[in-house]
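Handout, section 3.2

Students often ask what a structure token actually looks like in practice. Rather than define it abstractly, here is a full record for 15-hydroxyprostaglandin dehydrogenase [NAD(+)]. The first block is the sequence as you would receive it.
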Amino acid sequence: MNFTPSVLSFILTAEAEVYGIPTKKPKFHQQVQPSPSPWSPWKVSENIVTCENNIIMQLFNRVAFVTGAAQGLGKAFSEALLNRGAKVCFTDIQVSKGKEVEKTYSDKYGQDRVLFLHCDVSSSASLANSFKDAVSKFGHIDLMVNNAGIADESRLRDMVNINLIGAIEGSMLAVEHMRKDKGGKGGVVINIASTAGLTGVYFVPSYCASKFGLVGFHLSWASNPYNSQMGLQFGCLCPAFTDTDILNQKEKQMLYFEDGQRITKHLGINRVEKVVQGFLQMVESENCNGDIITITAKEDIQYSRRASSKMSHL
Ligand SMILES: NC(=O)c1ccc[n+]([C@@H]2O[C@H](COP(=O)([O-])OP(=O)(O)OC[C@H]3O[C@@H](n4cnc5c(N)ncnc54)[C@H](O)[C@@H]3O)[C@@H](O)[C@H]2O)c1
């Protein structure tokens, strides 16, 4: 079917809005400049270490725990953190893949900085045990990244268990471990949601529901007036379609499969590197508490919400 340019533009705009891609500035959007780069000289503090190449790194020797990280975004986030001198425990249900990545990262960044553990985020016990093992190896956790996720409309209960309950339980383990009022060192919790957690998407309604739930959880914790005294920050990353295996859905995993495929094609697909860039912007910002960053192929990296309270500890 051929469309005139104006009709095509109307369709694309409508579809973009359906998928949550901001085509015009929504009311709550507060686009602000990202925090000053941690590389800038004024950021020097006791928490920031100068590395061999004279780059000032605030992630140096920080310890991260990343779920669902044997491949895709979690794997890329883990490598980005290692590359900045952090120590990373990355976890997944895919053990052989995870072990392979562990070998590669250990060879590149050092055995003492890398740990792969089996962790099924849909099991409270598995999450708690792997978190405990990571603390045993590294002493503590500074950064919790709840990334594990699936997109499969035919596995509703699994999807809610993994995408929502897994991320909530992961966050709560981190909160209990990190909170300064209970002897912790403070820390940052990043939840990986989606633009589908900000706007309804008719071809993946249950996925959307799980991600909306996660955004609600993030916003609630981010608004906690005691975060400052607990030394906690909550950030939320919302990528749109990104070039990972999660996009290789089968027909039964999506409603209106053809619409989904067509809309994905129209809206474009993020490169993983772009999402990693948004992730680093968040974890390296002076204060990410309350931030929601969206990453879309057309609009790039944007802050859709930004917290105003000042807090810095990473
Ligand atoms: N790629 C996208 O288009 C996109 C867009 C928005 C949000 N996201 C979100 O990004 C996150 C990462 O996804 P991705 O794109 O890298 O996809 P991916 O499929 O490549 O990676 C997901 C990882 O989660 C793991 N996993 C699945 N079930 C698990 C469980 N029960 N316990 C632990 N790990 C489990 C998988 O083994 C896999 O390694 C997900 O939360 C996803 O919803 C992805």
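Discussion prompt for tutorial groups: Residues 181 and 309 are 19 Å apart (CA to CA). How would you have guessed this from the sequence alone?
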